[in-house]
Amino acid sequence: MNKLKKIILICMSLFMMIPSTAYASDNIPDLNESVLTDEEIERIVSPYEKNYSTASTDGLIDLYVIAVQKNGSYLLVAAKTVCGAEVVKCGYTEIRIQRRTGIRNSWSDYIVYEDLYKNSCSYIFGSKIKPQSGYQYRATCIHYAKKSLLSTEKINDSSNYVTM
Questions:
Q1: N or C: which end of the chain has fewer CB within 10 A?
Q2: pTM of the entire predicted model
């Protein structure tokens, strides 16, 4: 019986050592309820748009951008991916809203969205979040385009940051 307790204790200790990531659960917006209008998204991303149709490795993604903006006590997050007409699936493998205190250099995940795609050649994303104050916030994403099973493109991107 004593051996069984030791084995259970060792297993529980090992289980506690498995790394895990914690995400904020407060104020995570439902994507269907807090989406920004197309006009709001365009206003937020237009100063940061990058046209990479000539420099892109596979040439599937023509334009991509992600940006954040402070609006009172809200954080507005907007992203845009525009692909060529031959693309059949467009979107983001992930969008991460990250935060840091002004005295720290490292960013930590605050909210993570995964697998946001449309069966089209463009995707715009907009979210309105009421985050905790006292932090700097930014967004990162991986823009994604798929032409066929063997022809895909992914581009890592990072936004500006704002202090809330």
A1: N
A2: 0.75
